[in-house]
Amino acid sequence: KAGVTQTPRYLIKTRGQQVTLSCSPISGHRSVSWYQQTPGQGLQFLFEYFSETQRNKGNFPGRFSGRQFSNSRSEMNVSTLELGDSALYLCASSLDRVIAGQYFGPGTRLTVT
Amino acid sequence: AQSVTQLGSHVSVSEGALVLLRCNYSSSVPPYLFWYVQYPNQGLQLLLKYTTGATLVKGINGFEAEFKKSETSFHLTKPSAHMSDAAEYFCAVSGLEKLTFGTGTRLTIIP
Q: Are A17 and A110 a contacting pair, CB within 8 Å?
């Protein structure tokens, strides 16, 4: 079974621009979560989607948004990029409940200049 | 609120020696606990998880962890370290459909 895939793997953007990251979960998984990883803040939860509905949300500003499609694929969008948004963005999928165990993709490395 | 604390941001062990990575948790409800490993420039790989039942959990690559409620701990061990174990390890607790991670422990293996 193919793992979680994320595209693109690397991205360079300029302050003020917006960006969209994509995640395809493991086949059959209906829950998709997004995390931000930085050296200073570590791994922080952004949001989680299940069956196209946002089920939980972390403490990030409204510039960070996401959505999930009927095939469980998910996208996250960051508008008005700031230098501090430079990070590794990780997508994780699980069958239904997060407690069943989340499986992570390789991440998208976003650099904001 | 749930949280985990990983004691020791860096741990070094000799090849063949015991690996012990420490994790303590705080949870207002029965916790679900996880260990993940991250190799450079990669995502996180699930090593093992504790949900309910047996308190000694065996994972991949020879790792295991023991859930001790009285000590609120979930330490990760491996009897004999291998060079390929060098990576960063994260302990996490699950609640409200999200994982809360510790700050990570970087494991270095000395040849």
A: no
pLDDT above 90: percentage of residues in chain B: 81
| Amino acid identity for residue B4 in this structure | V
Q: A102, B96: Cβ pair inside 8 Å?
A: no
Measured between beta carbons, the chain A residues lying within 8 angstroms of B96 are: 56
Contacts of residue B75, Cβ cutoff 8 Å, sequence gap at least 6: B20, B21, B22, B23, B65, B66
* Confidence at residue B95, expressed as pLDDT on a 0 to 100 scale: 74
Q: Residue B18 to residues A11, B44, B65: CA-CA distances in angstroms? A: 40, 23, 13
Distance from CA of A17 to the nearest CA of B (A): 25
* pLDDT at residue A32 is higher than 80: yes
Tell me: the pLDDT tens digits for A98-111?
878 899 999 999 99
Contacts of B42 in chain A (CB under 8 A): 106-107
Question: Which tokens sit at A58?
Answer: 């972390």
Give residue B37's pLDDT: 97
**CA separation for the pair A78, A22 (Å, rounded):** 12
The chain B residue lying nearest A55, using CA atoms, is B97
Q: What are A10's two structure tokens?
A: 């690397």
Per-residue pLDDT at B96 exceeds 80: no
